[in-house]
Amino acid sequence: MAPRQPSGSGVVFYESYYEAVRDLRDADRLSMYDAILDFGFKGVVADLPPHLKPLLILIMPNVSASKRRREASIANGKMGGAPKGNQNARKNNLKQPKNNPDKDIDTDIDIDTDTDNEIDKETDREKKTVELPPVWGNDEDGELPWQ
After folding, report:
1. Can you give the residue ranges of every domain in the chain?
2. 74 falls in which pLDDT band (50, 70, 90)?
3. Is 57 exposed, middle or buried (0-12, 13-18, 19+ CB in 10 A)?
4. What is residue 89's three-state secondary structure?
């Protein structure tokens, strides 16, 4: 079989899709994989049994959004970058200074002063310990309420 040239289309298959269908019976899982990929590649909504249709309905918006982002990214990439008059294009033309480890020049001068020292000392004195109510599973037997 001759190697197939990529068509440029693709589907993002998130781990959450896998987790959602992983525990289905083999036939149902295969149906879901086919339905997700048919929707992603062809835009066709498969006719699934009632117990699988909700899964596909939840997955379809993510597949559509991923496809739109990919198509927009491809279209934007074909534009060739920022126009010459754009500020971003000018920034790239500036030469970056070379790093010279022998000269350690600190161009960032910190002039901040802490003017609220008095307030910080007062709030430290006012801090108190607060006891939180118990959380499920943290009672004496360690059991959760539904166990």
Report:
1. 15-78
2. confident
3. exposed
4. helix
